[in-house]
């Protein structure tokens, strides 16, 4: 791994131990404030929504990090539940901003129609350091499983557990960035003692459906909405996006459960992971945030429209 001109950590082809993980953590620098950017924005929503702290991460000596969720004020057990998560990877900024913008500008129109649970920033330590991993060099978005060692993942699963089986929709907001290829994939290879195999970064927005529960009409509704805001990623020459076959324009599939991905934690009928490309010369940061908001609104609208379907449209 070479990051920002630093020398590689560890010995090639040998997985990291505690010393290498500590060396990696020591290089992480706080670059922005979760308190100012996220907690402050959530606090401003308290007059309109119920705000709760569902946990706290003690990452001494860096500090303690509150985990914050926002709920519909008049929660009605008769209504379908919708989960929106952002910032599972702290460096993926538009997911955090998109979730907050959705709450501020659009969530009110679902009052009396759906219960909303929104977690704008699952990984506050990583948000401050513009990082993918938590301080233990663990990827939270590969850690949503029983007995998870990632505190971010374990806390979110505990928050969701009482409502599991009642969620109709879960949308998890992510980005694919140039730093995936220049920093995070090389770091992953180094951490795991593997050779780094260069890949490509798709130019545009795409979605990740659940291969065990594909919902193509749901994904298409989101793609159609986002296409009004920013461009959709094309398939590469092999007909893939990040190595996965494109099953519809801008859509690939992963096994969400076996891969321990966030979008697989609810058992919801409609699930998806968004992937915005903020480094595209064809998109601004504002467009990326707006794409996330458009995706959330389209996902909720589609789920509500098809809530009465026995299995959801194919």
UniProtKB/TrEMBL annotation:
CDD domains linked to this entry: M14_REP34-like
InterPro entries associated with the record: AstE_AspA_cat, Peptidase_M14
Cofactor section: Zn(2+)
Active site residues per record: 275 (proton donor/acceptor)
Region forming the signal peptide: none
Name assigned to this protein: M14 family metallocarboxypeptidase
Domain Peptidase M14: 31-307
